[in-house]
Amino acid sequence: MKSSVSARLNADLLEQQYALWCADPRSVDPTWSAFFEGFELGVAQLKPKNGEGAPAAPVAAAAPAAAGSPSETDLAFYGKVVSLVYNFRALGHTQAHINPLADHQERNPRLDISQFGFTEADMDREASNPLFRDGAKMKLRDMVAALEATYSGFIGFEFTHIHNTTVRNWVRRHIEDHALRGDDPADRKTRALGWLIEADSFENFLGKKFLGEKRFSLEGGEGAMVVLNAILEKCPAAGVLEIEMGMAHRGRLNILANFVRKSLTTILYEFTPNYMPDLVAGDGDVKYHLGYESVRDLPDGKVRVSLAANPSHLEAVNPVVEGKARARQRILGDDGVATDRKRVLPILLHGDAAFAGQGPVAECLNLSQLPGYRTGGTIHLIINNQIGFTTMPADARSSAYATDVAKMIEAPILHVNGEVPMELYWAAQFALEFRQQFGRDVVIDMYCYRRQGHNETDQAAFTQPHIYKLIQARETIGQIYKKQLVAQGALSQADADKIEQDIWDRFEAGHAKMVEMQEKGERSAFSGSTAVEQMPYTHAPVPTGIGRDLLQHVGKVLTTVPEGFNLHPTLAKRFVPRRQEALQNGGPIDWAFAESLAWGALLTEGHQVRLSGQDCRRGTFSHRHAVFYDSETRARYIPLEHVSPTQAKFCVYNSFLSEFAVLGFDYGYSLGAPNMLTLWEAQFGDFSNGAQVIIDQFIASAESKWQTPSDLVMLLPHGYEGQGPEHSSARLERFLQLCAGKNIIVGNFTTPAQYFHALRRQKMRPFRKPLILMTPKSLLTRPEAVSQEADFLEGSCFQEVLPDPMHFDDPMSVERVIFCSGKVYYDLAAYREEHGIKNTAILRVEQLYPFHDELIAALVGQYGAANKFVWAQEEPLNMGAWSYIFPRLEKVLDRRVRYAGRNRASSPAAGSKAQHYKESKALFEAAFTV
C-alpha cells in the first residue's frame, strides 16, 4: 500500500512537471528539462513508422511496474543518469583544464557523483542516454569518465544556453565526436609547431634587434596563430574567399608579419629611428595600429586577408570590420540565397578585459542577426591574458567569464587551453564549420597569459608578482610543444631544430635586406603601404544637375504605388498628391522629395545607395517615407527599388537603438563599397555624440592616419525649435574643431536643391571625403524652404555660399552684411521683411568647411559700402560655428566681425519655450543692430 501511494505521488509530480515543460521548457528545473527531452527522444525512436500515435506522457512510467516494464528503481536510476549527463553538458566547463598557469583545476562539487545519489554499486550498472553518444550502453563509471573527457578536458564548452534544438544538437554531436577522434595526424602537428615557432621567434627577434621598443607582443598568446592558420587552412574548402579582420594592438605586428604576410622588411624598417612613412598626405600612425591586406596562396585556393587599421580604442574597430565585410559580400554577390554570406568571413580578435568591458562588443553582437547588418556570423577569438593592463578579472567584470555577454545571442563558447595546440586547431575549424553551417557568431576564448607587461617597457611584477614569477619560469609554448612532439616520436630533434633555424634565418635575411636598403637610400623599396592615393580637394564646381526627363521619371516612380496597395489615408491624400503637384507645376520641391530625387538619379547612373539609422525609413519627423506600408496587411513597397530595370541596389534599414555600432558599421561599409552612397542618419543630431569615438578616431582622422578615404554621409537633425537641450544641437562646433587638411566636409544647408546637389556631388568628384550635414527639422515643412524644378536641372550645381536673394536697387546702399548658416537664415529674413530693413544683406555659408574664402570675398565685394559685418547663429557663443568662423571671416574681410547669438552656456539650449523665444528675439535684434 505504501509503495502504491508513493508511486502515485511520484506520478502526480511527474505529470505536473511534464505539463509545465510542454508549455515552456524553461519553466522547470534543468534536470527535469533534460529528463523530458531524453524521454521524448526515446519515445520518438519507438513510434510507428507511419508516425501515428502521440507520445504517452511519462506519468505511466511512474506507476507500479507491470511485468516486463521498468521498475521504480530503474526509472530512478535513469533519471539520475539523465541529470548526470545534463549537468556535465551544462557545467563541465567549470572544471575543464583551460588555464595553462594552473597546476590543477578545482573540481565543481555539483559534478561529484555523490550529488546525483549514485551508490558505489551503481558504478558498475549499465547506463545509457539518448543524448550522449547516441545512447551507447556502458558502465556508469565508464560514462562518468567519458563525460569528464568530453566536457571537462582542455576545452570547456558552453552551449546549453542555445534554445534552438537543431543548433544545440549539432554542437553536442561535434563535441562528442571530438572526444572520440583519436590522435591527430603528424603533419597537422608539424604545421602547428611551425606556426608557434614562427610567432615565438618573431617576438624574440624583434626584442633582440630593437631592444626596449614597444611592440605589444603576442608572447604568451602564440596559440592565436594556430587558431588563425587553422581557420585559413580550411577556408577554400569551406567556400571562404575573403577574410575581414579586426584587432587591437596586442600581437598585431606578429599577425601582420606571419598571418597577413606584410613585408617583413617593411615591418623591421618601421622600427628604425629614421623611419618616415611614405604617405601621400597626412600624419601617419604608429606601426601597431596600421592595417594591411594580402592574398594568401594556399594549396586548395587563394584567400584575400585584410586587417583593418585600428586606434587604441579597444573594440572600436569591430563595427567597422562588420561593415566592410557586408560591403565585400555585396560586391562579391555573397548576399544571395545560394551563398548566404559564406564567401566573406569576419574575424575579430579581442582581449578578455575589453570583451567584457567595452560597449561596442555588446552592440556588435546585437547587430549580428539584424537584416541590414547581418554578415553571416563572426568568429570571435579572445586572447585571454587573464588581465587587463594591471587589472585582475575580479576587478574587471561581474560575470564568471569574459565571454558571458555573447550568451545573449546564443553563440556557442569554447574556452580553450592556449597551450594545447591540437585543441586550438580543432576549436578553430569547429568555429568555421559552425559559422558556415548556421550563419551565426561563435566565440573561442583562448586562455593564455601575457609574458611581458602591458608593453615591453612595463613592469608587470609591480602589481602581479606571484603570477609573473610563474610566467618568467615558464618556457614558451613553441618550445614546450617542440619537446612534446619529439618525445612522442612525431618529429625528430633534428627536424624540429631545422624548423626553428629556417624561420630564424628568414628573419635575419629580412633584416639584412632592410639594412642594405637603408644604406642605399632605397626608401621606395620598402613596400607595404595600403594607402589609397586620391586627388587633392578642390572647390571647383561639379555639374550635378540632371535632365528634366529623368527628374520627371524618378518623381513619377516616387509617387506611384501598385494597384490594390492600401496606402495610409494621410499619405494618399496629402503626401503623394503634394509631390505630384510639384512635378506638374515645376515646384515647390521640399527637402525629402529632393533627397529621394537625388537617390533615384544616382541609382539610374549605377551608384548604389544605402541609408541606415533609427527610424530612418519613415524619418524621425514623418517626412521621408522611403518605404510605404499597406495599411491593412503591412506589406512593404519601396518606390526607389523600381526606378529602372537596370538600376543599382537601394537599401534602407531601420537600425537598432545604437549610434556607436551602427555609425561604425556604415563607415566600414563606405570603405568596402566605394561606389555606393552610404548614409547614416541620427534620430536627432544630439544623439550622434554616442558615436563620438567613431567620429574622432575614424571619420575625421582615418585619411590622415591610414590613408583610407571614405565618403560616408552623416545626417544630423539640427536646429533650435524650443525643444530643449536634447533636441536642438548636433554639436556643430565639435565637427568644426576636427577640421584640418581638407579631411571632412561640414555643411548646414538651407534649400532642398543644395541638399540634392551635395548628395550627388559625393559620387561625382574624383576624391572622397566624409560629408557631415546639419539637417533640418522645421525646415522640412517650412513653406519658404523649398526649391523649384529649375534648381535641379542640368547646368545647376552645389553652391558653397548662397548670395542674398533680396534685390537691392543699389548694392552700395548695403551697410551691413550678416553671415549665417542653416535654419536661422529664414528667421533673419523674416525679421528683415517684417521690419522693412533695406540696408542689410544676408549671406548663407552653406559649406562651413572647407571654407571658400575666395567666394566669400567675391560676394561681399558687391557691397562696397558695407562697414558692419555680423555672424548670427542660434547656438550659444561657445558652441556653433562662431569660434571657428570669425577668424576666417576677419581674414577675408580685413574687418572686425561682430557676434549675434545666445550667450555662453554649458547646456546646448534652454528647456523652456518661453525662454527659447526670448533668446531668439534678442538674437534677431542683435543681428541688425550690434
From TrEMBL:
Q: Which UniProt keywords apply?
A: Oxidoreductase, Thiamine pyrophosphate
Signal peptide boundaries: none
Q: Which residues cross the membrane?
A: none
Q: Could you tell me the superkingdom of the organism this chain comes from?
A: Bacteria
- Enzyme Commission code(s) on record: 1.2.4.2
Instruction: Output the Gene3D superfamilies linked to this UniProt entry.
Output: 3.40.50.12470, 3.40.50.970, Multifunctional 2-oxoglutarate metabolism enzyme, C-terminal domain, TPP helical domain
Q: Which Pfam families match?
A: 2-oxogl_dehyd_N, E1_dh, OxoGdeHyase_C, Transket_pyr
**Cofactor requirements of the protein:** thiamine diphosphate
One example of the protein's molecular function in GO is:
oxoglutarate dehydrogenase (succinyl-transferring) activity
Please report the stretch or stretches of sequence annotated as the Transketolase-like pyrimidine-binding domain: 589-782
Q: Which family does it belong to?
A: Belongs to the alpha-ketoglutarate dehydrogenase family.
What the protein does comes down to: E1 component of the 2-oxoglutarate dehydrogenase (OGDH) complex which catalyzes the decarboxylation of 2-oxoglutarate, the first step in the conversion of 2-oxoglutarate to succinyl-CoA and CO(2).
UniProt protein name:
oxoglutarate dehydrogenase (succinyl-transferring)
Q: Which organism is it from?
A: Luteolibacter soli
Species lineage: Bacteria, Pseudomonadati, Verrucomicrobiota, Verrucomicrobiia, Verrucomicrobiales
